[in-house]
Design a protein that fits this description.
binds nickel (II) ion, alpha/beta, globular, single chain, six-stranded mixed β-sheet, Metallo-beta-lactamase, Chain A
Length: about 230
């Protein structure tokens, strides 16, 4: 896809996204694999995953972070409290950051941006505070700017993300129920300004009813809503 300037993005179902840049950087966002009903059967992750980014502490975003980090020699990047949490659960290498900050991960500058959503991590002892939910902007050297909104409602300051970072591609939740649905995502598309939209967080379970078609019907023809399926690479 030309908007991606050689970077490849693979949807692994729900909010799990694998990003491989032309320069060889490999980043996995929100690994939800073993319990993910839409994880593409038989999909084999790359042997080396440089970084795992976590948007927030819910199980459908972090449940495989520690085992994947161990098996693929990854550094886990998350908001400070969540990074501390996964370190406590066994992640050997973590980077804690916070909203508004940028970290340089190889050839990718990653900025943590706002999201409007709850965030807690669960274990056998209950819910634990692990900071707030976030999104990420990935600026790939000589490549695209990718905005992954994480789990979020629509919010007006998405305009700032558009103004500041000029994303080429936006990965947006559209399922509804736990996040924005197509009606809200259509407004988000205008705020963010990306001309290529990769929808996620839909179709995983029956209550996530939003569809790429419903979003496409609400935005103009100048925006490409990609109707991808889990396992597909763009
Ligand atoms: Ni969530
Ligand atoms: Mn979620």
């Amino acid at each position: 896809m030309t908007a991606l300037k050689g970077t490849r993005i693979t949807w692994l179902g729900h909010a799990t996204v694998l990003i491989q840049t032309a320069g060889g950087a490999t980043i996995l966002i929100d690994p939800f694999i073993a319990q993910n009903p839409k994880y593409p059967k038989g999909f084999v992750l790359p042997a080396k995953i440089d970084y795992i980014l976590l948007t927030h502490g819910h199980g459908d975003h972090i449940s495989d972070a520690v085992p994947v980090a161990a098996a693929h020699h990854s550094t886990v990047v998350a908001i400070y409290e969540l990074a501390t949490w996964v370190a406590g659960k066994g992640a050997a290498k973590t980077i804690g950051m916070n909203l508004g900050g940028t970290v340089q991960l190889g050839e990718v500058a990653v900025t943590m941006v706002e999201a409007k959503h709850s965030s807690a991590a669960q274990d056998e002892k209950g819910d634990h505070y692990v900071g707030v939910a976030a999104g990420f902007v990935l600026e790939v050297k000589d490549g695209p700017v990718i905005y992954d909104a994480g789990d979020t409602s629509l919010f007006g300051d998405m305009k700032l993300i558009g103004e500041l970072y000029h994303p080429d591609v936006a990965i947006l939740p559209i399922g509804g129920h736990y996040t924005m649905g197509p009606r809200e995502a259509a407004v988000a598309v205008g705020y963010v300004g990306a001309k290529t939209i990769l929808p996620m967080h839909f179709g995983t379970v029956p209550q996530l009813t939003g569809t790429p078609e419903a979003l496409a019907a609400l935005v103009g023809p100048e925006v490409k809503i990609v109707h991808w399926t889990p396992g597909q690479t763009v």
